[in-house]
Amino acid sequence: MAMRAEGLVVDGLSFRHRISAPSLKNPWATRQGAGIHGVSFSVPSGSIVGLVGPNGAGKTTLLHLLSGLRTPESGSVALNGKEWKDMKSSPEARNGIGFMPDGVRWQGNSTPTKVLRRMSIIRSVDSSKLLELVGLKSKADETLDRLSAGMRQRLSLACALLGSPTVLLLDEPFTGLDPVAQKALQELLRQLADRGTTIIISSHLLLELEALVERVVLLHQGQVIIEGKLDSVRKKLGLDRRLLVEGRKGDAKEVLASHGEILEYHEGWTATLYREDGWSLQSREELVTELCNKGYPPYRVEAELADLAEILSAATGSESISMDLADSAMVPLARKEVEEE
Q1: What gap in Å lies between CA 296 and CA 290, rounded to an integer?
Q2: DSSP string, 240-292
Q3: Pick from 195, 41, 13, 167: which is nearest to 97 by CA?
Q4: Which of 122, 206, 266, 310 could form a cystine bridge with 306, CB 3.0-4.6 A?
Q5: pTM to 2 decimals?
Q6: Half-sphere exposure of residue 254, counting CA atoms within 13 Å on the CB side?
Q7: How far is 319 from 300, CA to CA, in rounded Å?
Q8: Which CATH code of 3.30.70, 1.20.120, 3.10.50, 1.20.1050 fits the domain covering 242-303?
Q9: From CA 130, how far away is CA 35, in angstroms rounded?
Q10: In CATH, which of 3.40.50.300, 3.90.870.10, 3.30.70.20, 3.20.20.70 is domain 6-236?
């Protein structure tokens, strides 16, 4: 498969919020607060990337910088090979970016058709096919108050897609959606990626992105700790070493012990195995083959996937992870490099 061109390249982006610090001499004084520090990563065109991290890690701040809502203190953004120092003052660059913010409230007696019509006038683009694209054609003239949470998220996505942006930024798009609505939105995002749209999804929930994103960028204290394909990230951090195996017949404990360290074992049987070198496809095939040959066929063999807390702990080397950003100083953290397979 040919390598896809880089659609978005973020290089050394930094920004600090200003917070109030009044004094007797200067009641309007401010000081530097939380933000992001030296953020760099690249996103290939037509791919879906997860921007993950705990609440307060700087995800929304980064999306605001990329969408042109804020001006960075340093760094640059390259979009389709053209570099920009400040997206906010660059209309040409902003036209290539679609942003779906978190927590948009669609209320009142207006309708999706009227909302998109007003938005399209502002951006001087055609919105005629967007409601059909996001699956809202049948609700085009429904009042906003009668739309479900999933329908309102679709409307937000339609607004972000005005002008056919080449890069789509989504801030917590699955918040408040039921499993059916989440699956429908995931399928829609895959279709957009297949058409060449580069998609960045910000979330503090890694598991909801598991089957959707191709790569992840992990933010902590406003900095990129590690990035790469999710399997490569887990392997780099040593989080691919546990395997859950279940069967019904006999006692497979002896066979299991010959393939890895048994962390847990329950009669019936259910076992969690550990291997220092991880569970490659070949090692799993060898385990299943021997279990079947010995008369203990498993009905479930599944890698125990690390959640965001475990990945963050492994990446930072800290057992206690704080979700707070430093107010006055942002000390550069050690960055983990991932070798792609």
Answers
A1: 8
A2: --EEEEEESSS--HHHHHTTSEEEEEETTTEEEEE-TT---HHHHHHHHHHHH
A3: 167
A4: 310
A5: 0.78
A6: 4
A7: 31
A8: 3.30.70
A9: 34
A10: 3.40.50.300
Domain boundaries, the chain: 6-236, 242-303
The residue with tokens 């069967």 is 247
